[in-house]
Write a structure and sequence with these properties.
- The complex is a heterodimer of chains A (107) and B (118).
- With 107 residues, chain A is mainly β.
- Helix content of chain A is 0%, strand content 50%.
- Chain A contains no helices and eleven strands.
- Chain A is globular, with a radius of gyration of 13 Å.
- By secondary structure, chain B is mainly β.
- The chains are: A mainly beta (107), B mainly beta (118).
Chain lengths: 107, 118
């Protein structure tokens, strides 16, 4: 299986901060990576796919980059509604796998 | 209505069987793969497997192979996740998610909470 190492596992930030989350794959996955946001009691929501494509309707403060084995997810200016857990997922090779998640908390 | 609607919460005893469902609405159900994802209490997302409803081609994560069965009935636009003998460790929320043409999962069901307790 391709393992996805996501870091950090948690971070504390303030509104307006720039937040960066990284995801590393144990094998090359090309650009077949998605980023999801999950809030308590809710299903995950897709934010970015193909490593850097912003889903329609998702605010432009969210962005993604990378290819191969190294990927980055950025929130350029954290908003109150962005406090949540974020997951990366590779969908290049079965079994698809998720990172362990990053909990973005209020500082 | 949301594209995927899951069945309601279940409370079962260890050793019992269970089948939960995920109904596709408002689109051609046989066009898209449907995957299942587990989330244990307070934990992250785990990909379990995926099925193509048109021909029931199914892929499992090795972690779940033999532990669950994924199936689909295209005549009623419904995918299933089933257990023959539940364990307490199966307590979790289970989500179904539709694989889009470009591979990512954009549509998710609301989740089904399965509680296994004696």
């Amino acid at each position: 299986d391709i393992q996805m190492t996501q870091s950090p596992s948690a971070l504390s930030a303030s509104v307006g901060d720039r937040v960066i989350i990284t995801c590393r794959a144990t094998l090359s996955i090309g650009s077949w990576l998605a980023w999801y946001q999950q809030k308590p009691g809710e299903a995950p929501k897709l934010l970015i796919y193909k490593a850097s494509t912003l889903k329609s309707g998702v605010p432009s403060r969210f962005s993604g980059s990378g290819s191969g084995t190294e990927f980055t997810f950025t929130i350029s200016s954290l908003q109150p509604e962005d406090f949540a857990t974020y997951y990366c997922q590779q969908y290049n090779t079965y079994p698809w796998t998720f990172g362990h998640g990053t909990n973005v908390e209020v500082k | 209505e949301a594209p995927l609607v899951q069945s309601g919460a279940e409370v079962k005893k260890p050793g019992e069987s269970l089948k939960i469902s995920c109904k596709g609405t408002g689109y051609n159900f046989t066009t898209y793969w449907i995957g299942w994802v587990r989330q244990m209490p307070g934990k992250g997302l785990e990909w379990m497997g995926i099925i193509h409803p048109a021909d029931s081609d199914t892929r499992y994560s090795p972690s779940f192979q033999g532990q669950v069965t994924i199936s689909a009935d295209k005549s009623i636009s419904t995918a299933y996740l089933q257990w023959s003998s539940l364990r307490a460790s199966d307590t979790a929320i289970y989500y179904c998610a539709r694989r889009e043409a470009t591979g990512e999962s954009d549509s998710w069901g609301q989740g089904t909470l399965v509680t296994v307790s004696s």
